[in-house]
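Before surveying the methods themselves, let us examine one representative protein, written as a sequence plus integers encoding its fold.
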Amino acid sequence: MNNSVGNTGRVLWAGLRALLVLTVVCGVLYPLAVTGVAQLVFPGKANGSEITDASGKVVGSELIGQTYNLPLKDGEETAAPDLKWFQPRPSNGLGTNSVNGQYTLILSGATNRSGDNEDLIQWVKDAKAAVIKDNSTAGHTVKPSDVPADAVTSSGSGLDPHISPEYAKLQVHRIAEKNRLTVAQVDKLVADHTDDRILGFIGEPRVNVLQLNIALKELTKG
């Protein structure tokens, strides 16, 4: 009986020591080491890939999209887009039916609706009509065939900070008109902020909307 109790005690003590050692190593030392290496080698990425404007103020992250809307008016369920800025792709839904219309991090995810879902089809139709209306100017009419898929659908996460070069170029005439710039100026702005495929073959060309709008803000100051 005494041997059984003694053996049990030794096993429990050994388990407790292993727990304490692993807690210190895996819960304290390892996270501190990884954090220290990340801060030394990749400080920008370790701190959230922050983007600053010309004044040095942090205005967002290059990894997370955001909206560019007018102030919400009384009686409105969703704010209208501020059309003097480049607009991002929808975030998990569209309009008042949006699952995540404001790029809320806690709601990251896809709409989980099939391609033949009636609500999704109607959202896409409404979004396409809005894109055509918003981006057609006095001297330039946007056709339905001009609207790329990312202008009317969200990404898998609903938080994508990028749009396609095609969607950015579709907005050029509106941006030029709203900001009293030439189309050539805005075209150059888009070209300068278009990133190619990673390593030349991974992914697709893309434009970071926040970085593009920061550059647009600086251009309108000039």
